[in-house]
Specification:
With 243 residues, this protein is an alpha/beta fold. It has helices spanning 42-48, 78-94, 114-126, 184-189, 203-213; strands spanning 56-57, 67-74, 98-105, 133-137, 141-143, 157-158, 162-163, 179-182, 219-220, 227-230. The longest helix has 17 residues, at 78-94. Bound molecules: uridine-5'-diphosphate and manganese (II) ion. Uridine-5'-diphosphate binds next to strand 2.
């Protein structure tokens, strides 16, 4: 995948002194959390997080161990998005990550193309910094446990093992949708997502096949920890290629 976009860089980075140490996350402080699903005003969320600019955050008292780009494909789900942002900023800050949330919006009235949005999001994210980890994230899924670490393990990872709308059960073994984590190197090795899936579904199954074809073993978080709340939304049309 060729990408030679101009670097924007990151003007939102805090200035650290040479004595500033790498952050140490005490995992014993992490556990199950609740979700606030009530409708929120964007202004209210913005006022709650004055330290966050352009979706970016980095701890000020220590240097983050992990730099994470969270990529969110989006169209016409404003209610979900605001609840998502409110939940995720608290969640990600607690993990002492340096991160930026990229909301990748599809304009126009053509069919939704999630794979393309993820590819665009990947390319765009590369202009802002060198991320260790890319998290591909549905806007309607909210992590219910702080022990779901938003950093990339060695292997491509399926994070959302147990989703509320599926009765907290895994739908099928090859599932690689909802929330996943790949390093930029892994994403590039499989040439990103396919751009060919319009409408609902199957681009994630295609990604699973790409990973298999490139001999990447896939990791999945345990279902007792990787629990996600699901926000309600209207049905999108299916493309008939799903399992
Ligand atoms: N999405 C969106 N607008 C749409 C369709 C999809 O923003 O009209 C995004 C959104 O991030 C959503 C994800 O694509 O969470 C997956 O789509 P959807 O929730 O419709 O699929 P589900 O997995 O719930 O069947
Ligand atoms: Mn959904």
């Amino acid at each position: 995948m060729k990408h030679r976009f101009k670097r924007i860089g990151n003007k939102d980075m805090p200035s650290y002194s040479k004595n500033t140490l790498i952050c140490k996350l005490n995992i014993t402080t992490l556990g199950p959390i609740l979700v606030n699903k009530t409708e929120l005003e964007l202004k209210w969320v913005e006022a709650k997080y004055p330290e966050i600019r352009g979706g970016f955050y980095a701890p000020t008292n220590c240097r983050a161990r992990h730099k994470v780009a969270v990529l969110v494909p989006y169209r016409n789900r404003k209610r979900n998005l605001i609840i998502f942002l409110n939940h995720m900023h608290t969640f990600l800050k607690k993990q002492l990550l340096e991160y930026r949330i990229f909301v990748i919006e599809q304009t126009g009235t053509k069919k939704f193309n999630k794979g393309s949005l993820y590819n665009v999001g990947f390319l765009e994210s590369q202009r802002y910094g060198d991320w260790h980890c890319l998290v591909f994230h549905d806007v309607d899924l909210l992590p219910l446990d702080e022990r779901i670490l938003y950093s990339c393990p060695r292997k491509p990872t399926h994070m959302s093992s147990a989703v509320e709308s599926n009765g907290y059960r895994l739908q099928y073994n090859q599932l690689f949708g909802g929330v996943t984590a790949l390093t930029p190197a892994q994403f590039e090795a499989v040439n990103g997502y396919s751009n060919l899936y319009w409408d609902w579904g199957a681009e994630d199954d295609d990604m699973f096949i790409r990973l298999q074809a490139s001999r990447f073993p896939v990791l999945r978080y345990g279902q007792s920890i990787a629990r996600y709340a699901a926000l309600p939304h209207g049905n999108s049309s299916r493309n008939g290629m799903r399992y």
